[in-house]
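WARN retry 2 of 3 for item q-0093 after timeout on previous attempt; input resubmitted unchanged.
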Amino acid sequence: MARRNNNNKLLVPGAENAINNMKEEIANEMNVELGADTTARENGKVGGEMVKRMIRIAEETMAQRRGRS
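OK item q-0093 returned
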């Protein structure tokens, strides 16, 4: 299999650590051992939950900003 280069650029310093911490926290909550030996379905569940939580955080942040305006 060809190796893919990751060209994603982080916009917020420290975001990578925060994302990795969130991923580990969610995996622990779901009793999922992340890694190559884990099924795509289990790894995907963790990713899906991460997206749900990030959307919720963004919505809450936007609502707070609207309340301050």
